[in-house]
Amino acid sequence: MRLLLTTDTHLTPRYPNRALPAELWEQIDAADVVVHAGDWMDPALLDAVEVRSARLVACWGNNDGDDLRARLPETAVAEVGGLRLAVTHETGAAQGREQRCDARFGPGGDTPVDVLVFGHSHIPWDTTTPGGVRLLNPGSPTERRRQPACTYMTAEIRDGVLSAVRTHELPPGAPRSR
Question: Which residues belong to any copy of the Calcineurin-like phosphoesterase domain (predicted)?
């Protein structure tokens, strides 16, 4: 099972020339499951991703308005290829993240999962908590901020095991489309 992980796309009608990289659309089309951890900012993008995704697991982010919040949960939880996966936008500061995530998403937490995908920082992140929860932040495919490149992630699930997790860097000036 192929996964595409993204977040912080920050598309908005205020910036009509901003669009997703064509490479990301290709990955969306090819994935069995698309995971988006919020900050869409444009309901039209959610519509387009829903149409092109075989399956979408997504949440809203802090920059998403009422229209997106009405359609998406703050935290989505799904069974994906034998794994319990959660997606939420914010997990707080990097310091103490593993402990906070274990408290909520670890074996003794309110929402125990195997994998948590999050966003907000635009900084790619791949760690495992002491309780065994894999934490993944794919960065942003549209706003690199202080990172060297815009990014997204892909992964595979085989026999209930997450594997082949890869962070992809998008080249500056990559072709973009809506």
Answer: 1-159
Q: Comparing 17 with 77, which gets the higher pLDDT?
A: 77
Q: Spell out the domain ranges in the chain.
A: 2-177
Q: Which is nearest to 105 in space by CA: 95, 92, 119, 91?
A: 91
Distance CA 160, CA 162 (A): 7
Q: Measured between alpha carbons, how far apart are the two ends of the chain, in Å?
A: 26
* Element at 71 (helix H, strand E): helix 66-71
2-177: CATH topology is Purple Acid Phosphatase; chain A, domain 2 (3.60.21)
Q: How confident is the model at residue 175 (pLDDT cuts 50, 70, 90)?
A: low
Residue 93 has pLDDT above 80, yes or no: yes
* Percentages of the chain per state (helix, strand, coil), in multiples of 5: 20, 35, 50
Buried b (16+ CB within 10 A) or exposed e, 23-44: bbbebbeebebbbbbbbbbbbe
